[in-house]
């Protein structure tokens, strides 16, 4: 009789505990983030990763992720150059528009930076980009920055020097 009572009690506990309705809160926000910031390790002491590109590359495309439900219309996302992490000169070392578009019914957009060939002058310069979002979509605190290090080959050695 004790076995039957124990089994019946266990069955009742399982039945009633599995029927409890769970009301988990749903996050309904919207963020944008750099895919490279999510998938690459940050620079030591910083929250952003550094991507090294040659000044002969032409254009660099950076994927921007929408962390939210896809939108039914295009979303224009603003971004900016962060002066504190940038040594590159706009118009000389790079050009960029300051906005990108995440197309309707999509979860990603592309931020494009054009890198002109400045020739073999040696050294490197840095460009730190930050996503700013728009009125409806904010930027992720942890994954909103990426730095490009633009390398320039050394000039050829002079003969007889």
TrEMBL record:
Keyword Signal on entry: yes
Superkingdom of the source species: Bacteria
Keywords from the named record: Signal
The keyword Cell cycle belongs to this UniProt entry's keyword annotation: no
Signal peptide limits: 1-21
Protein name: Calx-beta domain-containing protein
Naturally occurring in which organism (per UniProt): Algoriphagus taiwanensis
Record lineage: Bacteria, Pseudomonadati, Bacteroidota, Cytophagia, Cytophagales
């Amino acid at each position: 009789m004790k076995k039957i009572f124990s089994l019946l009690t266990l069955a009742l506990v399982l039945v009633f505990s599995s029927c409890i309705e769970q009301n988990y809160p749903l996050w309904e926000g919207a963020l944008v983030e750099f895919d490279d910031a999510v998938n690459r390790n940050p620079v030591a002491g910083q929250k952003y990763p550094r991507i090294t590109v040659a000044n002969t590359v032409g254009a660099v495309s950076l994927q921007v992720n929408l962390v939210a439900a896809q939108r039914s219309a295009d979303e224009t996302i603003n971004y900016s150059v962060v002066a504190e992490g940038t040594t590159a000169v706009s118009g000389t070392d790079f050009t960029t528009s300051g906005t990108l578009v995440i197309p309707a019914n999509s979860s990603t957009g592309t931020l494009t930076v054009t890198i002109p060939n400045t020739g073999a002058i040696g050294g490197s310069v840095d460009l730190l980009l930050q996503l700013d979002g728009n009125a409806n979509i904010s930027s992720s605190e942890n994954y909103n920055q990426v730095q490009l290090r633009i390398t320039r080959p050394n000039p050829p050695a002079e003969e007889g020097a």
